[in-house]
Amino acid sequence: MEGRCGRWGWAPRARQGALRNALSPRDGATIAFSGPGAAEYATATAHRHPSVEAVVVGPQSRPSRTVDTYVIAEGVPEMKDDALIAELRRARQWTAGRGHVAMVCDVLRPHEADDHDHWDNVQARVLFGGGIRTKAEILDVLWEAGLALDDVTTVGWGYSLWRCTAVATLATR
User: Fold this and answer.
1) Whole-structure pTM value
2) 64: exposed, middle or buried (C-beta count within 10 Å: 0-12, 13-18, 19+)?
């Protein structure tokens, strides 16, 4: 993230401190991070919580053991719904349906959004096919992935940490 500014530049670095505090892991917990910026988030979390094992997960990684929390650190607006649902289901698999799945994302609030918010949304939709989702759209994606929302914590720069747990059965599309 060095040397970049704008929507996907300095903001992740600024959110790291709030995120590592919002996770509040127990001693000995294992947290997996995926997505762009995963290494930075993992490093910041391990530095803040030395008793926690922070693991960076790549797109082809397979779980060798379960983790307590799986965090999609960045990249949610760039993912189409099907890709995000697949990533959330993969996260659910890493936690063996017992841990937390979390994602860092911003929420489009149409009635509060300014020109920059709408431009960011259009840009993400056109370039990547995803977009900044409304709360209802995020809840729909979570449901499709077999997750129920536990809580939402603000982590800065308009972003939130959405923490979820697995529901008994997966929704089908």
Assistant:
1) 0.82
2) exposed
